[in-house]
Specification:
Helix content: 10-25%
Strand order of the largest sheet: 2-1-3-4-5
Radius of gyration: 23 Å
Mean pLDDT: 91
Number of helices: 5
Number of domains: 3
Largest sheet: 5 strands, mixed
Number of strands: 11
CATH class of the largest domain: Alpha Beta
Distance between the termini: 36 Å
CATH architecture of the largest domain: 3-Layer(aba) Sandwich
Structural class: alpha+beta
Shape: flat
Amino acid sequence: MTPESGPPEGPRPGLSPYRGQSLGLASRHGKERAIARPFRIALGLELVLAEGFDTDSLGTFSGERPRANSAERTCLLKAQAAMEHTGLDLGLASEGSFGPHPALPFLACGSECMTFVDRHRGLVIQERLLARRTNFDHRSVGPGDDLGDWLARVGFPRHGLIVRPHLPGGDPLILKDLADHRALERAIHRCAAGSSDGRAWLETDMRAHRNPTRMASIRQLAFRLARRIATPCPACTAPGWGTVGTVTGLPCSWCGHPTSLTAKEVFACGACGHRQELPRSDGLRVADPGQCPLCNP
């Protein structure tokens, strides 16, 4: 393997300081199915569900309870609640949000956040994932509309749907956990009858236990966070050495002028504050001239 094709020099995961310990998880939507294995493999940790904590109290995807804080803050509050409800010194939680892709607004994407808290060491370690693969979608429909192509695209019934009146006029009506096409048809008729325009509003159910595509993203993020926790700081050996940002300026391969592409990745430790700037981990050292403001103005 050449230096250009291999990963940058830097710390490698070592022996987990958490092996044999338990980790409190705040989730009521089956996320342990995606998270347990990554944390067991990478860190030797066993998950313990915070059974007494209702994560919906901090906000729901369907809007019955608005989320009062950012995804990062909500994730931290969940992890802290997991510790309080399990009596453990280690807590974990994840939070997601969905909408237009930040760079390609005509495409939908998911943003997943996962936070690990070590109360004994005073550590908060967080990772994020921009999930480009998502079935996030919604539409207004009337009873009897042909939904075949749309339902196939969003993966119903393997992926859940939420139905509500398009223009509700009375008490809020939200129908979830629809098992099949017949149940969906009944829900559409019921919600259309409760709408002032006779239509229903369909949206993909983004709760983890009703969305296998999202569950796969959570599993990917869990492996990423677990690997980070297993990586010690090169200065103080505390867990959690990893990227916290990037530095732009990757030079053009023709003229050498800095571009807006990432040139270096910034690594940092949450315990001692040690920081390093390392070359891109994908081995790319120059930018395509098409990305250069001089060669392709």
